[in-house]
Amino acid sequence: MIMSLEDTLYPLLRLYEAAPQPVKTLAGRAYRAIPSSIRQGAAYERFRREAVESESWDGETTTRYQIAAIRDSLIAAQRAPFYAKRFAEVGVNPENFESLEQLVAYTMLTKQDIIQHRDEMVSGETAQRLAMTTGGSGGVPVSFFLHKGISRPKEQAYLEATWARVGYQPGDRVAVIRGGVTSSRSDGRIASFDATRNWLVLSSYHLTPERLPEYVAELNRFRPQHLHAYPSAALMLMQMGVKLDFKLTSLLCGSEKLSVEAQRQLEDHFEAPVMHWYGHSERAVLAAQRPGSTALHFWPAYGFVEFGEPDGDGNREIIATSFHNHVMPLIRYRTGDLWSADGHVIGRDYEFLIGRTGRRISLTAMNMHDDLFDGLLAVQFHQHQPGVVEFHLQPTPEWSCDREAVIRDGLLRKLGDDFELTLRLVDQIEKTSVGKHRWLVTTLKP
Question: Is 214 exposed, middle or buried (0-12, 13-18, 19+ CB in 10 A)?
Answer without folding.
Answer: middle
